[in-house]
């Protein structure tokens, strides 16, 4: 895991993004007070299976922790990822 992965908050599009060699993996979000809903995570086909979406999710969870947010994973990918990463279970709403 490369800890230099910097996710960016594209507030105009309400999504967190991770740029991998010019290809964007993103997680749509909706904020409701201190609750962060994640309805959708998408990786371009060329990045699927590379771990890019997992790196994005880790960045989203670290951002949520730093900002004191609770997370509600709505999409199946985000739910499954969080289930597999117990270190983030304290962030679940």
UniProtKB/TrEMBL annotation:
Domain N-acetyltransferase: 8-93
CDD domains: NAT_SF
Keyword Transferase set for record: yes
Record key words, sorted: Transferase
One MF annotation (Gene Ontology) recorded for this entry: transferase activity
UniProt-listed PROSITE patterns: GNAT_YJDJ
Pfam families tied to this protein: Acetyltransf_CG
Species, as recorded: Skermanella aerolata
Protein name (database record): N-acetyltransferase
């Amino acid at each position: 895991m490369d800890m230099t992965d910097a996710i960016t908050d594209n507030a105009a599009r309400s999504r967190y993004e991770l740029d991998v060699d010019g290809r964007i993996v993103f997680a749509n979000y909706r904020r409701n007070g201190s609750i962060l809903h994640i309805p959708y995570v998408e990786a371009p086909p060329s990045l699927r299976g590379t771990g890019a979406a997992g790196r994005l999710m880790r960045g989203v969870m670290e951002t949520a922790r730093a900002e004191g947010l609770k997370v509600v994973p709505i999409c199946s990918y985000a739910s499954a990822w969080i289930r597999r990463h117990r270190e983030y279970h304290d962030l679940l709403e």
